[in-house]
Design brief:
Helix content: 40-55%
Largest sheet: 6 strands, mixed
Oligomer: single chain
Length: 326
C-alpha cells in the first residue's frame, strides 16, 4: 500500500496507520481514475482511427463505408446521379459489391445503411431514363433493371442483420426496399412516398409481393397511388421499427446500432435465415414480373412524357452529377 502513496511521504510519516491507509486508498483511486481517462481516450482514438482506416480501405465513388466496432455503416452519397441520393445502375453495383464484401467480413455483425443530408433515398434516378436517344434510353433501362434485381437479391440474401437508417424523406425504390431490411429506424419527420401512378410505371423492389403481405391489398393500393406516409404512420403500419426525433437522430442512431451489434451473431443470423426462408423464392418471382414490365414501361413514350412532367413539377432534390458511363 505504501508504494501507492509515494507522492505523500510526509503525510504518511505523520499520520496514524488508519490515516495512512486512507491516504493510500485515495491515491490508488486517483491513479485508477487517471488510467480510466487515459484508457477511455485511447478507445475513442482507436475508434476514430478505425473509421478513418476503414474509409481509406474501400474505394467507391457513390457510397462510403464507415466501420465501427462490430458493425459497418454504408452511406448513400451518389455523385453520378442527377437526383440527390438516388439509385442508378452504378450505385446499385457498388451496393452489391459492398454487401458481398461485408458478408465475408467476420468482424462485421450488423450493417447500417443511411443517406446524407435531409434525404434518405429518392429511389431510381429518373433522369437516367430521360435520354433523347431511344437506344441509349433502352440500354440505361436494361442496366437499371439488372442492377435492381441484383441489389435486391443481395439485400434479401444478406446473412447478417441489416438496418435502414432513414435519416430523411424516402421515395419510390427508397421506400419499397425497406421491407427487405431487418429493422428500419427513421427520422421522426421523414415522409414516405410512392409516385408510381404519376410516373406511369409499376412499383419496383418486389413491392407487389411485400406490400400486400404487410399492409393488405387496400392499403397497398392507396400507397401505390401516391398517398404519403409520415414516419409515425409508417411505424403504426409496420414499415418502420422505431422513430427518433430529428434533433437527436444522428446522436442516437449510432449508439442504438452499436448496442445491437453486441448481441450474439449466431442467434441473429440463424433467426434471420429462418424468417427469410420462404421470402427469397417468392420475391424473385415478383421481381421478374415487375422488371419485365418496367423494361417495357421505362422505354415507352407514355413514361417519357409523365416522368418529365413529374421532374418539372415536383419538388425533387437535384445535384450536378459526375458524368461517367453507367
Amino acid at each position: 500500500m505504501l508504494q501507492d502513496t509515494h507522492c505523500f511521504p510526509s503525510l504518511v510519516r505523520n499520520c496514524d496507520p488508519a490515516a495512512a491507509a486512507a491516504v493510500a486508498a485515495a491515491a490508488a483511486a486517483a491513479a485508477s481514475k487517471s488510467r480510466q481517462r487515459v484508457g477511455g481516450e485511447s478507445v475513442r482514438q482507436s475508434q476514430r482511427a478505425s473509421v478513418r482506416q476503414s474509409e481509406a480501405n474501400y474505394h467507391f465513388r457513390d457510397i462510403a463505408l464507415r466501420k465501427f466496432n462490430n458493425f459497418t455503416q454504408i452511406i448513400l452519397s451518389p455523385s453520378t446521379t442527377k437526383m440527390k441520393n438516388a439509385l442508378n445502375s452504378r450505385v446499385l453495383r457498388e451496393m452489391c459489391e459492398a454487401l458481398n464484401t461485408l458478408k465475408r467480413d467476420d468482424s462485421v455483425r450488423i450493417v447500417l445503411v443511411t443517406g446524407t443530408g435531409s434525404t434518405f433515398c429518392q429511389g431510381v434516378d429518373l433522369t437516367a431514363l430521360q435520354h433523347p436517344n431511344l437506344e441509349t434510353r433502352k440500354k440505361n433501362a436494361e442496366n437499371l433493371v439488372r442492377g435492381i434485381k441484383d441489389f435486391l437479391k443481395a439485400l434479401v440474401q444478406f446473412p447478417k442483420p441489416i438496418i435502414a437508417g432513414v435519416n430523411g424523406n424516402a421515395m419510390g425504390l427508397g421506400v419499397t426496399m425497406l421491407p427487405l431490411f431487418d429493422m428500419v429506424i427513421a427520422n421522426d419527420k421523414a415522409e414516405f412516398c410512392l409516385p408510381y401512378a404519376k410516373l406511369g410505371q409499376v412499383p419496383e423492389g418486389g413491392a407487389t409481393y411485400t406490400f400486400p403481405n404487410l399492409f393488405g391489398k387496400l392499403q397497398s393500393t392507396q400507397l401505390f397511388l401516391g398517398h404519403k406516409l409520415t414516419a409515425h404512420r409508417a411505424q403504426e403500419m409496420g414499415l418502420v421499427s422505431e422513430s427518433i426525433w430529428p434533433a437527436t437522430y444522428q446522436q442516437e442512431l449510432i449508439p442504438k446500432v452499436a448496442l445491437l451489434a453486441t448481441h450474439s451473431s449466431q442467434s441473429m443470423e440463424a433467426t434471420k435465415a429462418l424468417m427469410n426462408h420462404h421470402l427469397v423464392t417468392k420475391l424473385e418471382l415478383s421481381l421478374e414480373s415487375e422488371c419485365r414490365l418496367l423494361l417495357q414501361q421505362w422505354t415507352s413514350p407514355h413514361f417519357a412524357h409523365l416522368s418529365k412532367r413529374f421532374l418539372d413539377t415536383q419538388y425533387i432534390h437535384l445535384q450536378k452529377p459526375v458524368s461517367l458511363p453507367l
